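Saturday, quiet lab. Running sequence design on the structure tokens for the scaffold JK sent over.
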């Protein structure tokens, strides 16, 4: 039945981490032509849109999140013409395209920052960023005690004595969003890409743009004092109310263009209420529900997160946006592979503990996929989720590229383990990621046993993760109860989640240690594993017609 609901209220969006998706020219790094060549795959998987990690010109100090020119494509990934062709081709395949936009900072190689360096202390060129004199004798101490998300202080001193702020790597200076030119520049960048046909943007660090103009010290709190693990309320640089003014303007710009352009915010907020503020009427369209990704594998925890998120979002008329993995976090197959999945502490890097059981992780990942895809709203799939890829936890140290590895003084291996190039086919690396005659190896080494997890190996195998996703996405399109809407919980024993979506759909997830007898139903639509004697085993999920 054709729907009149905007597409973004129920879309399944596939996240493409460009450098690890498909390498067309054999240099060991994925590229835009590679994405184009895989559009038939993405169409047959059944996704509605692609979120593409930054493809802009960049020195790649942080995988492209250090942008030197927002109107150019990095030669590593292709050309502007390639990007335009991808947008056109994707549309032919019925797939929308949402690039990343990175408004919190630029690269230190961006023309603005280079001008600021050249112009010197006190110059108007420096006002587009956050430059300050230091404290202490001769200004040798940073202007305040803020810390970088990648470790170490958030300030770097220049030879001329000025310090500049970078909430991420030193190669990522923070922009000053109190400067009108910063606003007009980003408004122009949005229009540049909207007029090239993109269907929206994923907004990087959407909660970070506004800073307290006084730049006050972070209060020292008892407990872990890494500067991140404190509540955001009245935080000097996270989730401040002023950010919403920026997004109200951006919303108007999106609305100037035809075809329902939409934003998704990467906003880390303390509470569902604070998150909902981003998607109030006149604000952004959607925001990732990271609480779902941070939840433990526990029925009560998941139910609370789902209820709280839905209540707040429904209150402001926005859809939920569920996500299990992305390029910044441990892949959920591995997260769930620990018997007890710890609840993630917001704003801290997830460091799993305990023995790893990948069969368990895979069972739970299958159940989690059915849970997520049955929830009201939209959902994101990170490339490789549909192949059940685990985190590569044993990358050789010499291969690690994430700035977190260096900045943490080699205490945190960073995010490379979820960014390993994905296996398409064949028995040995590069598993079809690069052409057979490639001149270079994949930029991160792939585990030897990934032949079993390749697209080729899983296609047509009804027990595979890939076919589970494919069938789930197809059912999701066909079943009028799924996508946007609401849910109603159905009473079930502790450890079992059961909810109804109307008309006629029931999702049951068994997170307990006991098999669970299925409730009455007229048909099984899809199960995450075999059902015997009408019993749903632990760590399994099922979609029923009722
Ligand atoms: C976001 C991105 C992450 C990046 C950071 C700085 O959190 O998802 O990959 O390192 O912003 O841009």
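Result came back. Writing it out in full:
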């Amino acid at each position: 039945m054709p729907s009149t609901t905007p597409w973004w209220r129920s879309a399944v969006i596939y996240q493409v981490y460009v450098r690890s998706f498909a390498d067309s020219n054999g240099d060991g790094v994925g590229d835009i032509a590679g994405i184009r060549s895989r559009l038939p795959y993405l169409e047959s998987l059944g996704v509605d849109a692609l979120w593409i990690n930054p493809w802009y010109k960049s020195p790649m100090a942080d995988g492209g999140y250090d942008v030197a020119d927002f109107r150019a494509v990095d030669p590593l990934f292709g050309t502007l013409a390639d990007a335009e062709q991808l947008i056109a081709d994707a549309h032919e395949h019925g797939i929308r395209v949402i690039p990343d936009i990175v408004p919190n900072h630029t690269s230190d190689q961006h023309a603005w920052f280079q001008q600021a360096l050249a112009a010197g202390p006190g110059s108007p060129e420096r006002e587009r960023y956050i430059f300050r004199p230091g404290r202490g004798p001769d200004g040798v101490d940073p202007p305040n005690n803020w810390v970088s998300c990648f470790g170490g202080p958030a300030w770097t001193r220049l030879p001329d004595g000025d310090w500049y702020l970078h909430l991420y790597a030193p190669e990522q200076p923070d922009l000053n969003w109190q400067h009108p030119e910063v606003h007009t520049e980003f408004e122009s960048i949005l229009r540049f890409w909207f007029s090239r046909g993109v269907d929206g943007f994923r907004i990087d660090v959407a909660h970070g743009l506004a800073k307290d103009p006084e730049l006050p010290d972070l209060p020292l709190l008892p407990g872990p004092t890494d500067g991140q693990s404190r509540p955001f309320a009245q935080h000097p640089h996270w989730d401040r109310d002023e950010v919403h003014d920026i997004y109200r303007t951006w919303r108007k710009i999106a609305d100037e263009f035809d075809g329902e352009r939409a934003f998704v915010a990467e906003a880390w907020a303390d509470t569902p209420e604070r998150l909902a503020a981003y998607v109030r009427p006149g604000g952004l369209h959607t925001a990732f529900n990271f609480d779902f990704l941070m939840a433990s594998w526990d029925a009560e925890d998941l139910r609370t997160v789902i209820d709280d998120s839905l209540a707040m979002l429904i209150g402001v008329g926005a859809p939920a946006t569920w996500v299990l993995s992305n390029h910044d976090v441990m892949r959920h197959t591995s997260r769930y592979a620990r018997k007890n999945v710890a609840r993630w502490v917001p704003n801290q890097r997830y460091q799993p503990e305990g023995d790893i059981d990948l069969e368990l992780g895979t069972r739970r990942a299958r159940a989690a996929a059915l849970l997520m895809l049955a929830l009201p709203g939209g959902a994101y799939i990170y490339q490789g989720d549909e192949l059940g890829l685990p985190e590569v936890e044993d990358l050789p140290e010499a291969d690690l590229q994430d700035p977190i590895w260096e900045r943490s003084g080699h205490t945190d291996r960073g995010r490379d383990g979820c960014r390993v190039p994905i296996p398409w086919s064949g028995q040995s690396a590069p598993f079809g990621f690069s052409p057979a005659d490639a001149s270079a190896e994949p930029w991160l080494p792939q585990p030897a046993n990934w032949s079993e997890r390749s697209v080729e190996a899983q296609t047509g195998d009804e027990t595979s993760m890939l076919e589970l996703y494919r069938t789930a996405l197809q059912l999701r399109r066909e079943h009028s109860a799924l996508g946007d809407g609401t849910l109603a919980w159905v009473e079930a024993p502790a450890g079992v989640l059961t909810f109804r979506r109307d008309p006629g759909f029931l999702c049951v997830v068994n997170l307990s240690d006991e098999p669970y007898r299925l409730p009455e139903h007229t048909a099984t639509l899809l199960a995450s594993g075999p059902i015997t004697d009408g019993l749903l085993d632990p760590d399994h999920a099922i979609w029923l017609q009722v």
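Notes for JK: The chain is about 25% helix and 15% strand. The chain has three domains: 7-107+178-469, 111-165, 485-545. Ask whether to fix the surface positions before the next round.
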